[in-house]
Write a structure and sequence with these properties.
CATH superfamily: Aldolase class I
Structural class: alpha/beta
Strand order of the largest sheet: 4-5-6-7-8-9-10-11
Order of helices and strands: HHEEEEHHEHEHEHHEHEHEHEHE
Helix content: 40-55%
Number of strands: 12
Strand content: 5-15%
Largest sheet: 8 strands, parallel, barrel
Mean pLDDT: 95
Length: about 350
């Protein structure tokens, strides 16, 4: 990973510093780029809210080889991790790697290591086109995310997403108001529940809604017929001063767990962080910026190396907290801490 991160730092100069800890401090306000909007408070909140929980170390047990595998939306996964939908290499990551090479390497690396990657959407068209092509090349192994566009464009992109062979599609409703799209003259907007419900009803695939940050919105997602939600503030890139995902995840899980699959995204930097999110109520997590750094820094090899690192950290954390499998992960392994800085 040292070499991969060094390569990424060189290739992403001016767009991402590849900091020792990816916490949003150095890149506050750098959108486009890899930073958080405005003061960067929402980006930082993802890390501080997660860091506020400690793991209870428990060693009087017989767990030696825990099983981190799971099944999400019918997909068997080697561990409960998905690569989040991040695109726009040319204006967010430096452009030293092409959009096509970037997304193909990310998705192929995920498939080769027993997990799944998601593709992004945006302007210009080659962002979603590269993603759709990569999923098609892998026989539908990927989750295409589209943004909440106006009707004609939304339907057109959804049709193309389904044509990839993907059995799951998503909409990052948390992209509404995204600065980069507004600057390009293509703003996206929120969607009322009845419109989302009608869209889901006519879509012959399982549907994920990404960007759920309150209990009432989670319940609306259930009512609309979504297969899954992602608790996410879009990496702190759309609204300054939102809570971190880990701050709101427990109350959302308490309200809708068992009624809908719950994914969580934001500030996850290690296998221990993955375990914390599961204990707080997520069924699986999405990881964004670290996957982008690994991909830009080493393409498919970088993705493989990063996945191996996360899996080793997760298994180690499961051993040290006495978790035999994911079914045994709950809040008893957590202890609320203070307010550490990230």
């Amino acid at each position: 990973m040292k070499t991969i991160r060094a390569n990424a730092k060189e290739r992403m100069t001016g767009f991402c510093r590849v900091c020792p800890v990816c916490n949003g401090r150095a890149c506050a306000g750098e959108v486009p780029g890899m930073g958080g909007i405005g003061t960067g408070a929402a980006f930082r909140a993802n890390l501080t809210s997660l860091a506020a929980f400690r793991l209870n170390m428990r060693l009087l047990h017989d767990v030696e080889n825990p099983d981190p595998s799971t099944t999400i939306l019918g997909l068997p996964l080697a561990m409960p991790v998905l690569a989040a939908p991040i695109g726009g290499v040319s204006f967010n990551m430096g452009g030293q790697v092409s959009e096509e090479d970037y997304i193909a390497a990310k998705l192929k690396g995920c498939q080769s290591n027993g997990i799944i990657g998601c593709t992004g959407d945006g302007v210009p068209p080659f962002i979603h086109e590269a993603g759709f092509a990569a999923i098609t090349a892998l026989g539908g192994h990927g989750i295409p995310f589209i943004k909440p566009w106006a009707d004609a464009e939304l339907d057109q992109k959804l049709e193309k997403a389904l044509a990839t062979g993907a059995t799951i599609v998503g909409m990052d409703i948390d992209a509404a108001g995204l600065v980069t799209l507004k600057l390009m003259g293509r703003p996206v907007t929120p969607k009322p529940p009845e419109e989302i419900g009608a869209l889901i009803a006519r879509t012959p695939a399982q549907f994920i809604l990404k960007g759920i940050m309150t209990v009432d919105q989670a319940r609306l997602a259930v009512e609309a017929g979504a297969a899954a939600i992602v608790v996410s503030n879009h990496g702190g890139r759309v609204l300054d001063h939102t809570p971190g995902a880990a701050e709101v995840l427990p109350e959302i899980a308490d309200a809708v767990k068992g009624q809908i699959t719950i994914l969580a995204d934001g500030g996850i930097r290690s296998g221990a962080d993955v375990l914390k999110m599961l204990a707080l109520g997520a069924d699986a997590v999405m990881i964004g910026r670290p996957f982008s750094v690994a991909t830009v820094g080493g393409l498919e090899e970088g993705v493989t190396t990063y996945i191996e690192q996360i899996r080793n950290e997760l298994v180690s954390a499961m051993v040290l907290t006495g978790c035999r499998d994911l079914a045994s992960v709950d809040r008893h392994i957590l202890r609320p801490g203070g307010s550490p800085t990230a």
